[in-house]
Amino acid sequence: MMDCYAVLGVRQDASQDEIKEAFRERALECHPDRVEEGEEAAAKEEFQRVQKAFELLSDPQKRAKYDASDEEKDPAGDTVDDVHVRRRSYKEEWRRRASDENRTISVSQAILDQVGGLSADYETIRGRTSVTVPLCCALGALLFLVEPTTIYATDVFFVDLFLCTALGGIYGFVLGYGWGYADLFFRGSQDSS
User: Fold this and answer.
1) Sequential pLDDT tens for the chain (193 residues)
2) What is the CATH number of the domain that holds 58?
3) Radius of gyration for the chain, computed over Cα atoms and rounded to the nearest angstrom
4) How many Cβ atoms sit within 10 Å of the Cβ of residue 185?
5) HSE of 48, CA atoms in CB hemisphere, 13 A
6) Is 104 a domain residue?
7) Cα separations (Å) of 111 from 89, 115, 119?
8) Contact residues for 75 (Cβ-Cβ < 8 A; gap 6+)
9) Handedness of CA 153, 156, 160, 162 (dihedral sign)
10) What integer pLDDT is reported at residue 169 of this predicted model?
11) Which of 44, 139, 152, 164 could form a disulfide with 32 if both were Cys (CB 3.0 to 4.6 A apart)?
C-alpha cells in the first residue's frame, strides 16, 4: 500500500491543520480539471491517491489504526522526500508541455475556412450593431425629450431619460443582430446559387 504521509508530503507527526493544508495544495496541483488535455488520466489517478490519503489521515481513528498497522505501509514505498521530488517533476512537466513551442497541431483547411468564416460573420453582425445601437439610443433619448410621457418610471428626469435611452439601445441591439443575420442569410443563399 501507499504511504499516506508521503502522498500528502507531510511528516508522520503532522497536525490536522498541516494535513488539511497539504491536501489543499496537492489537490490543486494535480486536479484533473487543471491539467492539459491528455494528462487527465494521470492527474485523476494522482488526485484519487491524494484524496484517499487525506480521508485516512484526517480521521483521527483511521489515522491511529493506520499508524499502528505495519502491513498498510510499504517499506519500499514513497518517502516524504520522494514525493517532493515527484511533485516538482509533475509541475515542471506540465509547465514544460504548456510552454512547448515545438508542439505542432495540424488542423484541416476546411476547419480553418470555417473558423475564418465565423470570424467574418461575427464582424458583419458587429458592424451592423455598431450602427443600430447608437442610432436607437439617440432616437430613444430624442423621443423622451420630445415626449417625456413616453416612459414614466420615476419622478427623476435623468433616470427616465437614461431608461428610455437604454431601451432604445436594446432595440438597436436586436435590430442590429436581425439585420446582420438577414444579411448573412441572403449572402449565403446567393453564394449557394
Assistant:
1) 678 888 888 888 888 888 888 888 888 888 878 777 777 888 888 888 888 988 988 888 888 888 887 544 444 455 555 545 455 555 566 566 656 555 555 666 777 666 676 777 888 888 999 999 999 999 999 988 888 777 777 778 888 889 889 999 999 999 999 998 898 888 877 776 6
2) 1.10.287.110
3) 31
4) 10
5) 5
6) no
7) 36, 6, 12
8) none
9) negative
10) 94
11) 44
Query: What does the alpha-carbon distance between residue 26 and residue 8 come to, in Å, rounded to a whole number?
Result: 7
**Overall domain count for the chain:** 2
CA 32 – CA 18 distance, rounded (Å) = 23
Query: Please, are residues 8 and 24 in contact by the beta-carbon 8 Å criterion?
Result: no
Say whether pTM exceeds 0.85: no
173 belongs to a structural domain: yes
Q: Domain limits at 85?
A: 4-98
* Residues 180, 129 contacting (CB under 8 angstroms): yes
Does the residue 156 lie in any domain?
A: yes
CA-based torsion, 24, 29, 35, 38: positive or negative: negative
Co-location of 33 and 56 in the same domain? yes
